[in-house]
């Protein structure tokens, strides 16, 4: 197989299931944009209210080291930059770097308005296909590969956290023994799922197909049976393509994923470090990683509401009294509200059509790939 393509179509074919799904999917509404932002702002406001200490804002102002806020912005830029490089890398240059950065900001935007457990990956694949004139199959394979790289990073970081927890107080004292045990079981379950997903996607896609088909046999889900069957056929086709990539190529994608996630943790660290010179950096970084892993199961768009509670739980005890609310607000301004604005701003008419429902049309068939 040539290095110039990810999912080359053998011949012209009927519209793929993803195209059909894109045509049938309801458009996102302006309300869908407003309520997660509003929920997050309410959660931040409640956090500031319950953690407020008289004189804390003056103390923060005097302790502020602007250079670390600049470092937080640079870490955010690094996160987006590495993520764009990862998309370009996985596409083998089919998506130019500027377009890859646009795609990453779009992915961040869509993830911010969809539940964390679902993410914005499927719609981002559609965006990449439309913006770069790729086939839906090729864009889907790219997104699947990126998600596999993330799963591989989770497989690496979770055991690291669990081992470190025997030496560093990663689990907050406030959760107690039962809470720490629950968090540990969750991380072990997430580790098992990540390993299973990677193994099944690459080597046993029929296992995922069997599980999915079993699930949709339940009466409330039977209406999805046909679509799920089509998607599982497509998954098996894409898994054959992914297996054609060399282990070295996959390691490169995982390395870029490690850079992306490390920058996420550093944004948190630099925001707190800007006002807390004596911060326990090692514990803070490990807890930041545990926080982001916990976000994955939140049902609200972008984790709004829940992620603020996790910040209070994991990182609040490491900060002086009265510092939790202001640092939380600063972090969310950078990592959520600003990213939402950038994602919506740079994506142009394509994303506006997808969000507000105007001019929705199928993705282009894509330019032909060469075997």
Quick description:
By secondary structure, the protein is an all-alpha fold.
Task: Provide a descriptive summary of the structure in words.
The chain is mainly alpha-helical and 371 residues long. It has one domain. The protein contains 15 helices and no strands. It has helices spanning 17-24, 30-51, 56-63, 66-90, 97-112, 121-132, 136-164, 176-203, 205-215, 225-243, 247-273, 281-295, 306-314, 324-346, 348-356. Helix 4 (66-90) crosses helix 5 (97-112), helix 7 packs antiparallel against helix 8 and helix 7 packs across helix 12 (281-295). The radius of gyration is 21 Å and the shape is globular. It starts with 16 loop residues before the first helix and ends in a 15-residue tail after the last helix. Residues 1-27 and 358-371 have low confidence and may be disordered.
Radius of gyration: 21 Å
Number of helices: 15
How many strands appear in the DSSP assignment? 0
> What is the oligomeric state here?
single chain
Structural class: mainly alpha
The arrangement of helices and strands along the chain is HHHHHHHHHHHHHHH
């Amino acid at each position: 197989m040539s290095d110039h393509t990810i999912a080359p179509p053998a011949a012209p074919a009927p519209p793929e299931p993803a195209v059909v799904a894109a045509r049938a999917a309801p458009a996102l509404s302006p309300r869908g944009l407003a309520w997660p932002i509003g929920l997050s702002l309410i959660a931040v406001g409640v956090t500031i209210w319950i953690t407020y200490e008289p004189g804390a804002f003056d103390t923060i102002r005097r302790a502020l080291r602007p250079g670390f806020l600049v470092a937080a912005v640079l870490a955010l830029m690094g996160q987006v930059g590495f993520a764009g490089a990862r998309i370009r890398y996985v596409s083998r240059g089919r998506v130019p770097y500027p377009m890859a950065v646009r795609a990453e900001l779009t992915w961040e935007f869509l993830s911010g308005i969809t539940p964390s457990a679902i993410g914005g990956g499927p719609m981002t694949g559609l965006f990449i296909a439309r913006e770069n004139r790729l086939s839906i199959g090729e864009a889907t394979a790219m997104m699947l590969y990126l998600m596999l790289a993330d799963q591989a990073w989770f497989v690496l970081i979770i055991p690291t956290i669990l081992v470190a927890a025997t030496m560093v107080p990663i689990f907050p004292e406030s959760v107690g023994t039962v809470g720490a045990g629950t968090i540990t079981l969750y991380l072990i379950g997430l580790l098992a799922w990540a390993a299973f997903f990677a193994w099944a996607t690459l080597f046993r896609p029929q296992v995922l197909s069997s599980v999915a088909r079993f699930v949709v046999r339940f009466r409330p889900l039977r209406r999805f049976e046909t679509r799920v069957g089509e998607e599982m056929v497509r998954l098996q086709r894409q898994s054959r393509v992914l297996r054609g990539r060399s282990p070295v190529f996959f390691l490169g994608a995982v390395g870029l994923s490690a850079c992306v996630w490390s920058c996420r943790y550093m944004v948190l660290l630099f925001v707190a470090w800007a006002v807390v010179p004596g911060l326990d950096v090692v514990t803070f970084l490990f807890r930041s990683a545990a926080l982001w892993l916990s976000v994955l199961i939140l049902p609200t768009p972008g984790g709004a509401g829940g992620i603020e509670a996790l910040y209070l739980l994991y990182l609040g005890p490491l900060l002086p009294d009265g510092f939790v609310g202001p640092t939380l607000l600063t972090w969310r301004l950078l990592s959520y509200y600003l990213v939402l604005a950038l994602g919506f701003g740079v994506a142009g008419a394509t994303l506006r059509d997808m969000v507000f429902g105007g001019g929705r049309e199928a993705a282009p068939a894509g330019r032909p790939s060469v075997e």
